[in-house]
């Protein structure tokens, strides 16, 4: 009996020793997992703001809206003043739909000139954009006394071919009002108005517009000479850039 008890105790001690070893292995393994998790969390928490990583490595993050629920139903609210299309009093183009010349029942001739407008429907649209060419011509004539008389071009028409003020205004609005890049504005002017304007010319027009705005802001009491020194004429410079762009 004593031998059996001793053998049983030895067996239990061996099992306990094996379990202790196994527990130690598991603890070591858990510590390794914890270290790996900490390293992964450290990598995920790094971005371009708290490390040397470039901004392109930040990735896309879902933003949270700061708007709060109002409790209102979507769409137009009760009491909201809606906007309805209204017909214009005078149309730019009028197309009358023709009546048949003869009645389809008795085949008698219809007095079309006596027809009355039954209903009007209007379509609001924009015309196809295109640039217009305005030509100025000077004339010359010799008087009977021999004196040669010659007319002159308007002061703003100084070049053989040049862009008008509306083209400049639209281009500056695209670059400064709508914040379009110069290259994109150049493409847009070509697509809309069939005008091949270089980005360099557009940049020059923007500078001219800035100078012009500064001139208009100059106080009236400023002397004429000081205004000339502060804001040189933008016409020659812009034309020079238009040639070289």
Describe the structure.
With 245 residues, the chain is an all-alpha fold. It is built from 6 helices and 2 strands; from the N terminus they run H-E-E-H-H-H-H-H. It has a two-stranded antiparallel sheet with strand order 1-2. The radius of gyration is 42 Å and the shape is elongated. Mean pLDDT is 82; it is low at 220-245.
> How much helicity do the residues have?
40-55%
Q: What's the end-to-end separation, in Å?
A: 112 Å
Give the tally of β-strands: 2
* Residue share in β-strands: under 5%
Oligomerization status of the protein chains: single chain
Average pLDDT, all residues: 82
Taking the sheet with the most strands, its summary is: 2 strands, antiparallel
The structure class reads mainly alpha
Q: Overall 3D geometry?
A: elongated
Taken in chain order, the helices and strands follow as HEEHHHHH
List segments where confidence is low: pLDDT < 50 over at least 5 consecutive residues: 220-245
Q: What strand order characterises the main sheet?
A: 1-2
Number of helices: 6
**What is the alpha-carbon Rg in Å?**
42 Å
């Amino acid at each position: 009996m004593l031998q059996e008890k001793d053998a049983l105790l030895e067996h239990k001690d061996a099992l306990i020793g094996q379990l202790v070893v196994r527990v130690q292995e598991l603890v070591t393994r858990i510590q390794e997992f914890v270290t790996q998790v900490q390293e992964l969390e450290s990598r995920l928490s790094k971005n371009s703001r708290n490390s040397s990583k470039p901004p392109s490595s930040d990735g896309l993050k879902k933003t949270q809206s700061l708007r709060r629920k109002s409790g209102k139903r979507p769409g137009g609210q009760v009491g909201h003043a809606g906007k309805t299309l209204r017909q214009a009093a005078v149309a730019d183009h009028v197309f009358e739909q023709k009546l048949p010349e003869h009645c389809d029942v008795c085949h008698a001739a219809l007095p079309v000139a006596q027809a009355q407008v039954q209903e009007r429907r209007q379509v609001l649209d924009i015309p196809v954009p295109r640039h217009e060419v305005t030509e100025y011509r000077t004339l010359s004539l010799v008087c009977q006394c021999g004196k040669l008389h010659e007319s002159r071009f308007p002061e703003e028409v100084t070049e053989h071919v040049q862009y008008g003020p509306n083209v400049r205004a639209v281009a500056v609005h695209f670059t400064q009002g709508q914040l379009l890049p110069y290259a994109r504005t150049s493409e847009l002017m070509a697509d809309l108005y069939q005008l091949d304007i270089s980005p360099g010319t557009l940049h020059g027009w923007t500078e001219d517009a800035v100078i012009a705005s500064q001139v208009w802001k100059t106080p009236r009491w400023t002397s004429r000479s000081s205004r000339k020194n502060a804001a040189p004429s933008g016409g020659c410079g812009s034309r020079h850039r238009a040639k070289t762009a």
